[in-house]
From TrEMBL:
Pfam families (UniProt xref): Fer4_12
Organism of derivation: Bacillus chungangensis
Gene Ontology MF terms in the entry: [formate-C-acetyltransferase]-activating enzyme activity
Protein name per UniProt: Anaerobic ribonucleoside-triphosphate reductase-activating protein
Catalytic activity, reaction form: glycyl-[protein] + reduced [flavodoxin] + S-adenosyl-L-methionine = glycin-2-yl radical-[protein] + semiquinone [flavodoxin] + 5'-deoxyadenosine + L-methionine + H(+)
Function, in words: Activation of anaerobic ribonucleoside-triphosphate reductase under anaerobic conditions by generation of an organic free radical, using S-adenosylmethionine and reduced flavodoxin as cosubstrates to produce 5'-deoxy-adenosine.
Cofactor(s) required, per the database record: [4Fe-4S] cluster
Record Gene3D superfamilies: Aldolase class I (3.20.20.70)
Length: 149
C-alpha cells in the first residue's frame, strides 16, 4: 500500500482517539484540498499490512480512520488491512471523495468489500464554496457522515 502518513491520537477524524492512515492517490483533486500532495501515488511510501498493523496495535485505545488521498483508490490492497483491524475489534471510518451511491454502483468488487468493512463513511468531494468549519468531522456541507454498522 502507498501511505503518506500515519497519525496517532487524532480527535478530528472521528469520535474519540483515532489512528489515521493517510493513503496516497486521489482522482478527485478538490479545490482547497488540505492534503494535495496525496493526489500522486508516487508520493507515498510502500507499507505492508504488517507495517501498518504494528502502528495500529501500538495504541490499543484508538480506533482507525482511513483518509488520503482516497482510500478506495487502493481498495484491493486495503481490504486485507481492514480485515485485520476488524479482528482487533476496532471501528473504521473512511473518508472518500466518492459518494456512497458511486461506491455502491461501482463494478469494482474490492470497493464493495472495503465498504462492507467500514463502520462510518464520510462521503463526497470537498467543495471549497461549501466549506463549513462548524461541521464536526467533515470539511464541507455536501459531505455526509453515513453510519453503516
Amino acid at each position: 500500500m502507498k501511505v503518506m502518513n500515519i497519525l496517532h491520537d487524532s480527535v478530528v477524524d472521528g469520535p474519540g482517539l483515532r489512528t489515521v492512515i493517510f493513503f496516497a492517490g486521489c482522482p478527485h483533486r478538490c479545490n482547497g484540498c488540505h492534503n494535495p500532495q496525496s493526489w500522486n501515488m508516487k508520493n507515498g511510501t510502500d507499507l505492508t499490512v504488517e507495517d501498518i498493523m504494528a502502528e495500529v496495535s501500538s495504541n490499543p485505545l484508538a480506533n482507525v480512520t482511513f483518509s488520503g488521498g482516497d482510500p478506495f483508490i487502493q481498495a484491493k490492497k486495503i481490504v486485507p488491512l481492514a480485515k485485520e483491524i476488524k479482528k482487533l475489534g476496532k471501528n473504521i471510518w473512511i473518508y472518500t471523495g466518492y459518494t456512497m451511491e458511486e461506491l455502491q454502483s461501482s463494478k469494482d468488487v474490492y470497493k464493495h468489500q472495503l465498504l462492507s468493512l467500514c463502520d462510518v463513511l464520510v462521503d463526497g468531494p470537498f467543495i471549497l464554496e461549501l466549506r463549513d468549519l462548524s461541521l464536526p468531522y467533515r470539511g464541507s456541507s455536501n459531505q455526509r457522515i453515513i453510519e453503516l454498522h
